[in-house]
Amino acid sequence: MNSHVWFDAIGWAGAAALLVAYAMVSSRKLEGDSTAYQFLNIVGSFFLAVNTISYGAYPSSFVNMIWIGIAAFSIATRKRSPSR
Fold it and tell me: How far, in Å, are 2, 35, 59, 77, 79 from residue 83 at the CA level?
């Protein structure tokens, strides 16, 4: 199989993960600061970053890397917080 097909599949999986995360928060099935929501953001953004890097779409890659950082920071601060 062509490598672009794999990168496309990875990109679609990433887009799906982000859309599922957004839908779950919007329908109040997940909280916006939950670990599950942030994990979906990390996975989705990572997959989209892989896809956009493969196509040389560096501004989108940059946004996805920042998105990963925000989600990881949220998980890290949530675990350290004594009230949770």
Answer: 49, 15, 37, 11, 9
Nearest to 33 by CA among 82, 80, 67, 78: 78
Placement of tokens 């600061």 in the chain: 33
CA nearest 36: which of 14, 18, 58, 21?
Answer: 21
pTM of the model: 0.88
Strand, coil or helix: what is 54? Answer: helix
Instruction: Kindly report, residue by residue over 16-55, the tens digit of the pLDDT.
Output: 999 999 999 999 999 998 999 999 999 999 999 999 999 9
